[in-house]
Amino acid sequence: xxxxxxxxxxxxxxxxxxxxxxxxxxxxxxxxxxxxxxxxxxxxxxxxxxxxxxxxxxxxxxxxxxxxxxxxxxxxxxxxxxxxxxxxxxxxxxxxxxxxxxxxxxxxxxxxxxxxxxxxxxxxxxxxxxxxxxxxxxxxxxxxxxxxxxxxxxxxxxxxxxxxxxxxxxxxxxxxxxxxxxxxxxxxxxxxxxxxxxxxxxxxxxxxxxxxxxxxxxxxxxxxxxxxxxxxxxxxxxxxxxxxxxxxxxxxxxxxxxxxxxxxxxxxxxxxxxxxxxxxxxxxxxxxxxxxxxxxxxxxxxxxxxxxxxxxxxxxxxxxxxxxxxxxxxxxxxxxxxxxxxxxxxxxxxxxxxxxxxxxxxxxxxxxxxxxxxxxxxxxxxxxxxxxxxxxxx
Length: 394
Fold this sequence. Notes:
about 400 residues; Rossmann fold; seven-stranded parallel β-sheet; six-stranded parallel β-sheet; 15 helices
């Protein structure tokens, strides 16, 4: 009888694990973001690239992400979110987990983390969690914040860069949960019809077009973007550059525009506001510029690598992990507009250096920073959480 019981147990073990391996895991992605940014682009890429899982997405009602996903072949739901403690969103998490028999919840931002942790108080039948940490901001040393990030429901924290993983480890008790998974860009890309930036905004064909894609938020440090242009025009006397910034405007925008006016820079730069699929416009840039004071790794840099546009950026967050100064791009200290302006002049005058940077960056992108590679690494983490270290339940 004992032998028979052991055989039955072994049979059940094999059947359960075979089912786990042969069926696609069902993933619920939770996002509370309102505007489109690199994090939302990552979520979309993950759903499109990873066909070895079934994806369901819950996001904020009326958000850019919800509007975009409705155009894709992705099952998407929304919920009102007037505060970061909105119980309607919390109940929606629980309902979707039950309706779709979700195997794993993938949380994509800090507000989504708060709501997902709240859900654990209202239901004891939720699947395990994975969290994506997409910025290099330190976790605040506050009791509630530390509780969220160290919650037992979270089995993995996927960090966008090594520096993000290092900073996060200072506040997460179990560092074995932390793993670096670089994002990337889709290769090859399906270019959508482009708008001609020079034609629409009446930019001279002789101007060197310096492009930036960034929302008007604190982390992107557009004060330094403005000071770079100020140094270029008013200090160095270079007027052949034209700076264009594509990204969603915020309550900071009016202050930026006033600074541009005060410095007499209206003829040399432009805020376009949000443009859908803005990355398709990168080939029109002569140089890509990032002036951030805090980053994970900007999607804009990956896209510039792909389109072979040379990059100048600040050495913050994970950027130095993908750009080596003088090898495949130029790096500057944050908040240093003078340095950025000098590097723009240097790079604009050296075509061979531009070619060197773009060739190396493009090859590194293909080898290390594609969404195919990102999806495979993420799936490996899903399987480890669901089935064990080897993805086999052992």
